[in-house]
Amino acid sequence: MGLEQEKKMAAIKSVALVKNGMLVGLGSGSTAAFMILKLGEEVAKGLSIKGVPSSDATAKLAREVGIPLISLEEAMKLDINIDGADEFDSSMQLIKGGGGALLREKIVAYNSKYNVIIADSTKEVRRLGKFKLPIETIPFATKNIIGELTEMGLKPKLRLVKGSPYKTDEENLIVDLDIFEWDDIPNLNEMLIRIPGIVETGLFLDSTDLILVGKGDSVIKIEK
Ligand SMILES: O=C[C@H](O)[C@H](O)[C@H](O)COP(=O)(O)O
Description:
Layout: H1 3-15, E1 23-26, H2 30-44, E2 50-53, H3 56-64, H4 72-75, E3 80-83, E4 87-88, E5 94-95, H5 102-110, E6 115-120, E7 133-137, H6 142-151, E8 157-158, E9 160-161, E10 164-165, E11 173-177, H7 185-193, E12 198-201, E13 203-204, E14 210-215, E15 218-223
Helix pairs in contact: 1-2
The structure holds ribose-5-phosphate.
InterPro entries: NagB/RpiA_transferase-like, Ribose5P_isomerase_typA_subgr, Ribose5P_isomerase_type_A
Enzyme class: isomerase
Pathway: Carbohydrate degradation; pentose phosphate pathway; D-ribose 5-phosphate from D-ribulose 5-phosphate (non-oxidative stage): step 1/1
């Protein structure tokens, strides 16, 4: 079974949790895209929901497949949020932001009553950090932040796309960090968040209620 199939199976399973009348957080990335397509099919069949997108790309896809959208402030509290991840460990700690959408994703997750992560089997790791940790930074401070994080041994790299700095939906810059050697991840997260100009990190530490992982031809559940 290929990875795309694993993503798709996890995504389809997650859509079964969405019920009539729910306000739904719509994640970003390739796995979340499968979920949005399936949700669009269900809406076409009569499922009545409203979605809050976690990125401009997700909003575009959701509109294309006919999912009614509302803003976060209209929704206030979401019933369920379904999103992908770049890595997760057995304690349900995540790295997200490979696609640069971590800030809005974290806001949507925080404002959701129930957070579901959908993933293929390659995302499961014993220790977080093989995937570089994305942090979102205010451009005014990015060079200084890179300087400070270099001194901390985090090997920060400004994310580039075709040679130019990658800009997030909030017009910020992403810096990717090597955190593999760090043992105390919650403490690292606290240290990063305290640096002025770092808006958010891609560490999602206590926000997940359920992970659905496509593995071979089945979907495995990891729950709190
Ligand atoms: O910024 C991107 C998001 O955090 C994605 O959910 C994450 O990168 C996983 O994406 P994918 O499902 O494409 O592997």
